[in-house]
Design goal:
By secondary structure, this protein is mainly α. It has 4 domains: 162 residues, Glutamyl-tRNA Synthetase, Domain 3 (Glutamyl-tRNA Synthetase, domain 3); 86 residues, Glutamyl-tRNA Synthetase, domain 2; 49 residues; 88 residues, Arc Repressor Mutant, subunit A (Orthogonal Bundle), CATH 1.10.10.350. Helix content is 47%, strand content 9%. It has 22 helices and 11 strands. It has a 3-stranded antiparallel sheet. It has a two-stranded parallel sheet with strand order 1-2. β5 and β6 form a beta hairpin. α13 packs across α15 and α18 runs antiparallel to α22. The longest helix is centred in the N-terminal third of the chain and has 16 residues. The N and C termini lie far apart (77 Å). Bound molecules: glutamic acid. Glutamic acid (GLU) binds next to loops.
Length: 494
């Protein structure tokens, strides 16, 4: 059977790293098994719906390069792909649920429920509407069918609850956690249909997975407690269950607690793939390559047996196996995410790197020709951690240093600096830049001085500090007159 998986986000805001990870694992599993990756918008809770969210989800997946095969935008034969448009489908199944006594009507008012909740929480710490107390609530189990019908026809407000029978062992299978057993007494008679007639998450989710012929459900661990409820629904309808895979939690860097947006804000790392409403930057804006972002996200709960953990999306698809998904929480590490990005940047082909340079520093083309830009690209490539570094790394080719690094200055001030700068100026002036390095070495040999001092002085003059790419190569790009100007500037500064 062809594998069909789905990513089923609720459009209540931006996608969090956890959402991207769920989408990615669904994508990987689909591609690995030559299956179909479906995107279903779970918008049953219209009150929590955020207008821009759906489009944001599409844009995020597009940027990451893991767009779905079937969705609202690309319907297959299992639509509609938005739950709010599937009401007529749900109606049919709700009818069966009531007719076959898998659920019952509950007329309890919000006030009564809330009072019962407060009391129960005080007495036992928790409230559950279930086999123990449903006899004392206002529901159709406690009145005749005629009475129930009369109330419904007279317009009484009601919800529909799952009728969980007591003392049944509910057995579910999870690919990672294996058999999950729960006694039905632990469960709640969950609301399946709200007072407005629309289904809640549990019901809509199970009906849709069945109707959309989903073969494997891959989602976050936070949905594991819902699994027994879903199992009961599958069993009630007599439907074949899909395979279930609950992905481990993503923990914050300290390993204590779930990774949260607040944590990201506090420690300066994004938790969204792309910017959300101009308010928050995403990984894109921070300068991550989409494939590098995915490469890191893939490692949140999955580890490769391959020797090289730096992989393209195609390579990850090739390596991906659900067997290698861990049970325990995956700790998020922003430094590692950046390192993975740097590794991806280093592996970019020359043309790709040049294109990024032009994108991040379009003004380079006003000053440098194609060959020079190519050289700049080569010189800075290994220093780029995030793409946003490109701007600053290119600055040294366009402008003289705005300031000098104090430590670097102290170092060169120990030399006979004024004379040395004059000598270097002469060397630069008299020689072809192509042979500048040889000229410097020859000069040092004749004068019996070390090369280090000259190179350091040149570096401070041109770059402003003692770090940066090969200084002779930089000089070849910026040319003689800029180099001489910068040497003169340093001399004046001193
Ligand atoms: N709509 C749920 C969510 O927002 C989907 C859970 C599931 O995949 O079953 O995460």
């Amino acid at each position: 059977m062809k594998e069909r998986v789905r990513f089923a986000p609720s459009p209540t805001g931006p996608l969090h790293i956890g959402g991207v990870r769920t989408a990615l694992f669904n994508y990987l599993y689909a591609k690995k098994n030559k299956g179909t990756f479906v995107l279903r918008i779970e918008d049953t809770d219209q009150k929590r719906k955020v207008e821009e969210s759906e489009e944001y989800i599409f844009e995020s997946l597009k940027w990451a390069g893991i767009s779905p095969d079937e969705s609202v935008k690309k319907p297959g034969s299992f639509g509609p792909y938005r739950q709010s448009e599937r009401q007529s489908i749900y109606k049919k199944f709700i009818k069966v649920l009531l007719e076959k006594k898998g659920a019952y009507y509950a007329f309890d008012s919000a006030e009564n429920l809330s009072a019962a909740r407060t009391l129960a929480e005080k007495e036992t710490g928790a409230f559950k509407y279930n086999y123990l107390n449903r006899g004392s609530f206002d529901n159709s189990l406690n009145c005749s069918e005629e009475e129930t019908l009369k109330r419904i026809l007279s317009g009484a407000s009601y919800t529909i609850r799952l009728w969980v029978l007591p003392d049944v062992e509910v057995i579910s299978e999870d690919e990672i956690r294996k058999t999950v057993r729960v006694n039905s007494n632990e469960l709640e008679d969950k609301v399946l249909v709200k007072a407005d007639g629309t289904p809640t998450y549990h019901l809509a989710n199970v009906i849709d997975d069945h109707c959309m012929k989903i073969t494997t459900v891959i989602r976050g661990e936070e949905w594991l407690p819902s699994l027994p409820i879903h199992t009961l629904l599958y069993e009630f309808y007599g439907w074949e269950k899909p395979k279930f895979v609950h992905l481990p939690l993503i923990l914050n860097p300290s390993g204590k607690g779930k990774l949260s947006k607040r944590d990201g804000d506090k420690n300066g790392y994004p938790v969204f793939p792309i910017a959300w409403k101009k308010e928050f930057d995403g990984y894109k804006e921070k300068g991550f390559l989409p494939e590098a972002h995915l490469n890191y996200i893939a490692q949140l709960g999955w580890s490769t047996k391959a020797e090289d953990e730096i992989m393209s999306l195609r390579e990850i698809v090739f390596e991906f196996d659900l067997k290698d998904v861990q049970k325990g929480g995956a700790r998020f590490d922003y430094d590692k995410a950046k390192w993975v990005n740097q590794q991806h940047v280093q592996r970019l082909k020359q043309k790709e790197m040049e294109a990024l340079i032009k994108e991040h520093r379009p003004d380079l083309t006003n000053t440098f020709d194609v060959g020079e830009i190519s050289k700049i690209s080569e010189l800075i490539q290994e220093r780029v951690v995030l793409l946003n570094d490109i701007h600053g790394l290119c600055a040294l080719f366009l402008e003289a240093p705005a300031a000098y690094d104090e430590k670097a200055l102290q170092k060169i001030l120990k030399l006979d600096i004024s004379n040395l700068i004059s000598e270097i100026k002469t060397l630069v002036d008299k020689n072809q830049l192509e042979s500048l390095k040889d000229a410097v070495f020859l000069f040092c040999k004749e004068k019996e001085i070390g090369v280090g001092g000259i190179m350091q002085t040149l570096r401070v003059a041109v770059v402003g500090s003692l770090s940066g790419p090969d200084i002779i190569e930089v000089i070849k790009v910026i040319g003689k007159s800029s180099t001489l100007d910068r040497l003169e500037m340093l001399k004046k500064h001193i």
